[in-house]
Design a protein that fits this description.
By secondary structure, the chain is of the alpha/beta class. The protein has helices spanning 20-36, 58-68, 86-99, 116-123, 133-144, 169-178, 193-203, 227-245, 256-260, 266-275, 283-295, 310-323, and strands at 5-10, 41-44, 73-80, 104-109, 161-166, 182-185, 215-223, 278-281, 300-304. It has a single domain (5-227, 278-323), classed as Luciferase-like domain (TIM Barrel, Alpha-Beta Barrel), CATH 3.20.20.30. The chain contains twelve helices and nine strands. An eight-stranded parallel beta barrel has the order 1-2-3-4-5-6-7-9, surrounded by seven helices.
């Protein structure tokens, strides 16, 4: 078996009973912990208008995390490019690359990362913004290559590593066509990960940036000593996601007391697990779940772990490193 690469996707959850300052302090703690476990990357994802998710500004969090770590690659998973002026993103990530040479990833998505209110606030009344995603990536690459009269400052800075993110075959085809690395969001996609990633590999066209396919599977994993404990820990994100699906606000990630007061029906649980797939269980169970993906040649995982108890959240990543 080839070497298995593990990375972290952090939504920076805001925890019930904590201030935002206290909840965001966990980001640095987790980053230092997984770096000690030799994780490869630590990404934060752009979301908006969701009170329980604190990663609305990846460009602010990335230098904070990079300054607290030493060797891990730090990046966005992702920046939703249609929400921003492409020139500004080029300047931001060139600055980050200058500050933390060889450690910055720029993961790019085309979704808004929000509901309709925030989308309009970010993009204006521009329903075609996402349709221009391929063109804006080309423009971004021209800024990084200094091919335009308008220069993204600072110049003379190596290009950050650019990834395409997606939850369907669109992103896979685009990344393959452009010869860029690709990360597939299995944790909220109805598409089969193995098929999408194999499509990317088959369609890949080598580029000046990448000579062979480089892909990763994003997945939500909650690992504990036993299956029963893992299911108990998973209830926080289940309840949070259920409230979101039902049209309510996604508030702070609920603690154990709140989750125990709101048990889920079997119908709700089944709906959640199909809409937001998760791997939940003991190390042995998780290894069994991941077996088919490993057998299919997927050896690069970007792992989300939404757990209220931060000590147990760190332990989840520790157990994953031990079995993988």
């Amino acid at each position: 078996m080839s070497q298995i690469h593990l990375s972290v996707l952090d939504l920076c959850p805001m925890l019930s009973g904590e201030s935002p300052t206290e909840s965001l302090a966990h980001v640095g703690d987790l980053a230092r912990h997984v770096e000690s476990l030799n994780f490869d990357r630590y990404w934060v994802a752009e979301h908006h208008d969701m009170e329980g998710i604190g990663s609305s500004s990846p460009e602010v969090l990335i230098p904070h995390i990079a300054g607290l770590t030493k060797k891990m690659r730090i990046g966005s998973g992702g920046i939703m490019l249609p929400n921003h002026a492409t020139f500004h993103i080029a300047e931001v990530f060139r600055t980050l690359e200058a500050l933390y040479p060889g450690r910055i990833d720029l993961g790019l998505g085309r979704a808004p990362g929000s509901g309709s209110r925030a989308t309009v606030a970010l993009r204006g009344h521009n329903p075609m913004a996402a349709e221009k995603f391929p063109e804006e990536i080309e423009l971004l690459e021209k800024y990084f290559a200094d091919e335009l009269p308008l220069k993204a400052i600072p110049t003379r800075v190596p290009r950050p590593e650019v990834w395409i993110l997606g939850s369907s075959d669109f992103g896979a085809r685009l990344a393959a066509q452009k010869g860029l690395p690709y990360s597939f969001a299995q944790h909220f996609s109805g598409f089969p990960a193995t098929e999408v990633l194999n499509l990317y590999k088959r369609s890949f066209v080598p580029s000046e940036y990448l000579s062979e396919p480089l892909c990763m599977m994003g997945c939500h994993i909650i690992c504990a000593e036993t299956d029963e404990e893992a299911e108990k820990l998973a209830h926080s994100s289940d309840l949070s996601y259920l409230r979101f699906i039902q049209g309510g606000p996604r508030g702070f990630l609920p603690d154990l007391k709140e989750t125990e007061a709101h048990p889920l029906s079997p119908v709700d649980r089944q709906h959640l697990r199909s809409t937001f797939p998760k791997f939940i269980g003991s190390p042995q169970t998780i290894k069994k779940y991941l077996g088919p993906y490993l057998k299919a040649g997927i050896d690069n995982f970007m792992i989300l772990s939404m757990i209220y108890d931060q000590e147990l959240r760190r332990k989840s990543y520790t157990l994953l490193r031990e079995i993988l």
